[in-house]
Amino acid sequence: MPSITPQQKIYFLSDFHLGAPDHEQSLVREKKVVAFLDSIKDSAAMIFIVGDIFDFWYEYKQVVPKGYVRLLGKLAELTDRGIQIHCFVGNHDMWMRGYFEKELNIPVYHHPKVFEWNGKRFYIGHGDGLGPGDHGYKFLKKIFRNPLCQWLFGILHPSWGIGLANYFSRKSREKTGMSDQHFLGEENEWLIVYCKEMLEKEHFDFLIFGHRHYPIDFKLNDNSRYINLGDWIRNFTYASFDGTDMQLHQWQS
User: Fold this and answer.
1) How far is CA 96 from CA 41, 57, 91, in A?
2) Is residue 49 in a domain?
3) What confidence tier does 87 reach under pLDDT thresholds 50, 70, 90?
4) CB–CB of 215/230 below 8 Å?
5) Dmax (CA) of the chain
6) 93 CB contacts (<8 Å, ≥6 apart)?
């Protein structure tokens, strides 16, 4: 991996959930994300979007969900400028199948991935289905990622398919409730438990996830930190790496 110069930063953000709960509120968030991306275009060496860009996304053979043109246009502008953007799928937009790669020149990752810059090792992923517990979702995730199940969903008319997906998205948010508004404690934060298990196998300086919707910078040991990026629904938080250290920030538009 190339080194990061003192004038550059790598930026990380996640969980926009564009489309929810309605068009009007989603549009306000979309404009905030676009404004943020525009503000970092001169300093960004790379940008990582770590899942759940959309509250629902399914790429049919010739169709993608309508809307989000401001964000998609800004991403295209940035990659055309030569800025590398990397995208991870989340549990709400896991059905990405080539549109971002072909139209926006953005690689899309479906599993956590290891990166290294300036001698620092990063483990990056959305975070869904990792760690102990949540067995019901882990079972559903296997179904959702099954190629046959995806094909069966794809033969539904988009009006039916998107309507069904939006229903399950609402149910998912209702199940989460208020748990994304406070720290649950070291033993109850499943991603902290997962990070500790990962560090028993190999060293990482920073383990970075989204999904949790609550910004967290947690010291796992003397040399490793777990960072959760929060969201762009309530917190409007992101992280940056300056070549030496990681920091969490809140976007003030």
Assistant:
1) 25, 7, 11
2) yes
3) very high
4) yes
5) 53
6) 51, 52, 53, 54, 55, 56, 57
- Band (138; pLDDT cuts 50, 70, 90): low
Is 2 within a domain?
no
Q: Which helix (H) or strand (E) holds 44?
A: strand 44-50
Cross-strand pairs, 50: 88
CA gap 227, 216 in Å, rounded: 5
Residue 37 resides in a domain: yes
Residue 3 maps to a domain: no
Q: Quote the tokens at residue 68.
A: 């989000």
Residues 243/226, Cβ–Cβ less than 8 Å = no
Q: Are 71 and 18 in contact (CB under 8 A)?
A: yes
Give the closest residue to 17 by CA, choosing from 127, 107, 93. 93
The pair of three-digit structure tokens given for residue 142, joined into one six-digit string: 């296997």
Residue-range definition of the domain harbouring residue 150: 9-250
For the chain, the domain total comes to 1
Show Cβ contacts of residue 221 under 8 Å, excluding neighbours closer than 6 positions: 199
Amino acid at 168: F
CATH assignment at residue 69: 3.60.21.10
Asked if residues 43 and 81 have their Cβ atoms less than 8 Å apart, the reply is no
Rounded to 5°, the CA angle 160-165-168 comes to 130
Distance CA(190)–CA(178), nearest Å, equals 16
Dump pLDDT digits (tens) for 10-46.
999 999 999 888 899 999 999 999 999 999 999 999 9
